[in-house]
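[Q] Does anyone have a clean C-alpha cell version of this?
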Amino acid sequence: MMDTYRIVLADDHSLFRQGLKSILRQIPGLEVVGEASDGLELLELLKNKKLDPQLVILDISMPNLRGLEAIPEIRACCPDVKLLIVTMHADKEYLYQALAAGGNGYFLKRDADKELISAIEMIRRNKTYVSPHLSEDLADFWAHGRAGSSSPALSNRERQVLKLIAEGSSNKEIASSLFISVHTVERHRANLMKKLDFKKTADVVKYAIKMGYIA
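[A] Here you go.
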C-alpha cells in the first residue's frame, strides 16, 4: 500500500487553497495536513514536527513574508521537504529566482486544474517541475547554470535593503529600520547593486516594482 504523501498549502487566497484541496482530495494517497495564509504563519506551522510534510505548495507573493523569502527559512528548518511555488506570474525572472533559491517546481495558477497532479508526481520522483508555458525558460536556466541566470539570488537582508531603497529610504533610515549600522547598509547596498548590475537608484525602483517588492 502506498504511503500517504503529506502536503502543506500556503496561499493568502482562501478560495485558491480550497480549490487546491478539492483537486487533491480526488487523488488517493495525498493528504493536506496544514494550511497557512502568509509566510510567517507557514514557518510557525512547519515548526510542528507532528505535521512532517513531504511537500509545501506556496504562493510566491504572500503577505508578511513572500514565498521567495520563505524558501531559505524552510530549507533551514525542513531540509528534506519539497517546495512547489505557485504564482500567477509567467515571468522567467520569477522562475529563475524561485529555482535559484531552492524551489523544486514552479507552477502557474492558471494551470491548476490540468497540471497540479503532474507537478506533484514529478516532484515526488525528485524531478523539477515547471509549467508548460515556461518550459523553454527552464531549459535556458539549466543551460546557463544557477549562478549564471539573469536574476541572481539575493540574500534576505539584501532584499530588505532593496525594498527600502526603492521606497525612498536613506541609508540612515534603512539602518534604523533594520537595526543595523549605516556601514552595513552601505555594504548590502553595494553588494545588491553589483549582483544586479545596477548603476543608479532608478534601476532599483524599476526592479522592485517588476518583482513585486513594492506596488
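[Q] Thanks! Anything notable?
[A] The CA atoms of residues 100 and 147 lie 8 Å apart.
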